[in-house]
Amino acid sequence: MTQPLNAVLIIDKPPGLTSHDVVARVRRICKQRAVGHLGTLDPLATGVLPLVLGNMTRLAQFYLKSEKSYEGVIRFGFATDTYDAEGEPVGGTVQPKLTLEQLQDLAGRFRGVIEQVPPPFSAKKIQGVPAYKLARKKKEVSLEPVKVEIKQFELIELDGARVHFRARVASGTYVRSIAHELGQMAGCGAHLESLRRTSVAEFTLSDAHRLQELEQVSPDQAFPEEIFVHPRKLLPSLPSVTATDEVAGRIRHGQSVNLPDVSRSPHVKVFQGQRDLIAIASRVAGTLFHPKIVFG
Q1: Crossing angle, helix 175-186 and helix 100-107, to 10 degrees?
Q2: Does the N-terminal or the C-terminal CB of the chain have fewer CB atoms within 10 Å?
Q3: Same domain, 221 and 238
Q4: pLDDT for 136-184, tens place per residue?
Q5: Whether residue 78 is found in the same domain as residue 171
Q6: What angle do CA 171, 81, 183 make, to 5 degrees?
């Protein structure tokens, strides 16, 4: 029987695969049933896709509102029904006559907290039905605008009808919608031609591994530790404490314990040894903590 693998793994997602496809591949390669991801990437997109394996799936609640960074290309001249290069052109094609300065001026309107309409081909639900299912059937999709935060949206270089950009956004922001709305403002239509996610929360491309790297590990060998994120690097905003074996045993049984008072943080990461993350604990009072999540 395969031993459970409790770890965080960052995949550099290739184009053409859904996030679910990647999860399925990793389940097969690592022979693990419990595998999840921390933020969907569209099939067109590449880059940072954090996966949680085994007991580490319990970390997901801490990453629901993670900031994300991207780089990519917006193509001007026509819009598409999906707001990206995988969709069908809509509204005709024009030859855009734009300068980088003009586009940069328009881009300034997207910075900060704004209202954004999600793409019709998205997982947003309309009366319980995902919008993309209605859109595929050519049914009208009417989504309400939602508040999102765009912390950075920088247009770097204009190459003909294509502009290269960098963006940093709060959770729930659709970069496809930014491209679509920028095209509307420019009066010539636009869509997202390519997208690469460069970070999610504390995870970056420097942490990422290709699926081929995992597939090269022999089935009778253990995966090298360096493939996985060191547990001490997880949730860097939370202080780490190391518990004695006796205290660790009590935590594993869900009991409140006294821990070294390293800060006034309401939550701490509890380790047994250097790599064994055993719990996230919440402060009850003073140095008394109660395990909020136990990883086993």
Answers
A1: 120
A2: N
A3: no
A4: 766 666 678 889 999 999 999 999 999 999 999 999 999 999 999 999 9
A5: yes
A6: 70
Helices (H), 42-148: 100-107, 131-136
Residue 2 lies in a domain: no
Judgement on whether residues 59 and 164 belong to the same structural domain of the protein: no
Q: pTM value? A: 0.91
Q: Which tokens is 246 given?
A: 């006796």
Sheet of 267-272, strands arranged across: 240-242, 267-272, 276-285, 288-294, 257-258
Would you say how long the chain is, in residues?
296
Cα 116 from Cα 119, distance rounded (Å): 9
Same domain, 137 and 180: yes
Amino acid at position 98, single letter: L
Distances in Å between the alpha carbon of 265 and those of 234, 268, 287? 16, 7, 11
Whether residues 81 and 29 fall in one domain = no
Residues 75 and 178 in one domain: yes
Instruction: Determine the residue type at 100.
Output: L
Q: Region of 92 please: left (phi>0), alpha (psi -120 to 50) or beta.
A: left
At 282, which amino acid appears? S
Instruction: Provide the residue range defining the domain that includes 33.
Output: 7-63+203-229
Split into its structural domains, the chain has a count of 3
Q: Any residues with CB less than 8 A from the CB of 168 and at least 6 apart, and which?
A: 67, 68, 69, 70, 150, 151, 152
pLDDT digits 0-9 by tens, 8-31: 999 999 999 999 999 999 999 999
Among 12, 42, 81, 84, the one annotated catalytic: 42
The CATH number for 98's domain is 3.30.2350.10
| Total Cβ atoms within 10 A of residue 61 | 10
Is there a single domain that holds both residue 115 and residue 158?
yes
| In a shared domain, residues 141 and 25 | no
Q: Which two tokens stand for residue 229?
A: 């994120």
Annotated catalytic residue 276: no
